[in-house]
Every structure is written in C-alpha cells, then in structure tokens.
Write the structure tokens for this entry.
Amino acid sequence: MSDFFNTLEFGPLPAAGSEVITPGTAERRATMRHMTEPHSAEQTVGELARELGITVRTLHHWDEIGLASPSGRSAAGYRLYTGADADRVRRVVAYREIGLGLDAIRAVLDDATTEITATLREQRAQLAERVEELLRLDDRLAAMAAAHERGIPLSADEQREIIGEDWDPDAARIAQAQWGGTVQWAQFAERAATRTRAEWQELSAAMSRLQLDLGDALARGVQPGSDEADALVDRHRETFSNFFPLTREMQVCLGRMFEQDAGFAAHYDGFGEGLSRWFRQIIDASARKHDIDPDAAIWQ
C-alpha cells in the first residue's frame, strides 16, 4: 500500500542505485549551490562607476595610468573589477575627494615609505592657503559688485570724509542710473573696486587741486589756446583718466556737459564766476590744435 502512495506522489520508483529526482529537486540543488559556492564580487566598469558616483571615463583613465585597474575576466573576456580592485578604487575616490592629486594618491597606496599623516597635513596646509585665497577673491568680488552698483565702494561717511562734507554720496548712484550700461561705467567700476582708501584720497586731492588751479587761471585772465591753458586741459584729461580712459573727443563732450548741465555748471562756477564756460573754451581750443572739431566731437 505504501508503494502505491509513493507512486501516486512521486511517480514510478527508480531502479536500484539510481538518483531520486523529485519535483523541485533542480531548484533546491541550485539554491544549495548558490549558498555553498563563493559569491563573486566582480563588477563591470559601469557597475562600479554607478556605485561610486564617478564616470566610466574616469575609471578608464585610472586604468590607463595604472592607478586602479580591473584584474578579473568575464566568460566573454571582458575585464572585471575584483573585490580587491574595487576596494582600491574606493580608496582612490576617498583621497581624491579630499583634494589629493593622482600622483600623491599613488604614493599613498603604493609606496610603503610614504607617511600618510604627513601627506594629509601637507594637503591641509595647501587647503588653508586656498581658503585664504578664496576669501581674498570674495572680498574683491564684493568690492567689484559694490562698484558696479554704486560707483564708489565706500560708505557715505567715508565718501564725505575723503571727498568733502559737501559731497553727495547719491551722486554716484545717479551717475550709475544714467551711465550704468556704458563701457566707461564698467571701466570706472573695475578701477574703483581695486582702489584703496589712500588712493581715493590722493585722487580726490588731485581733482580738488585742479579745480582750484582752474579757478586761479580764470581769475588771472589765462586765455584759451595759451600754453598754460593747454597744460591745464592735458592735466584734466590725465587726472580724469584715473576713472576711465578719456580721449580728447570725449573730453570735448565733457566740457560741453560741464557748461550745459546746471549741476556741473554750478559746481565749477563755485571755483570762479563763469568757470564752466571758460573751461569748455580752453578744452575746445586745445582740441582744435589736435585737428578735432569741437562741434563735431562725439563720445566714443
């Protein structure tokens, strides 16, 4: 009777000495083989790249220079990273992420005489220098941004202290609104961003001396076209070129604006009655000596 039930459950009994094959035997055999055989840790280039968040191209480069190469082979002959290979790549990634160059990483991994701690301390020192450099760069960027935004990257109090109590810090903001999109404003901002407080003081003093000397020359009756008047015109152009390059034609345009703009005219006339008009006249006379027609001069 038992043989009958065995036959119903498993099929005909095997002959003596043969292997018993029952339903599910192949699956169980495969499972047991997976559990008892060593698990392969080999990875393709793509698999390892995805795991570590780097590119396949990077792995190929490290392989080409002999820094970290795959030593395994697939059945199809493709190169594979063994567990040890992958561990080396992970170390390369770790040291690269803290800033070591590939040559330094090679020395750390391959040269038994390399003091890893010393190498890391050296890297920290280099990083500290880089941090200082970045902080200086940040200061320059801040100054450049301030110069482009408001012309003079100094506080209102600093501007009044350097230029004079009657100076209006909003003047630069107004100028930015009017000329902010020009090449000359960009040049002005680029120079202003790197100018020190002492240099601002020196430039302000030079402009003040020039304006006083213009007023004195007017009072003494210096005539347009004279050598003294021409020298004052050249001095004005040289001093003003500290802000941006000023050509003679551009200077003629400035002279015209000094006379026609009520604000500028009032400023210059404060150094001598009629100075704004006389200043334009000496600029025009000097321009003619250089074959420039003041009436045709344009800002360029």
Remarks:
- Confidence is low (pLDDT under 50) at residues 1-40.
- The CA atoms of residues 22 and 170 lie 96 Å apart.
- The radius of gyration is 41 Å.
- The chain has 15 helices and two strands.
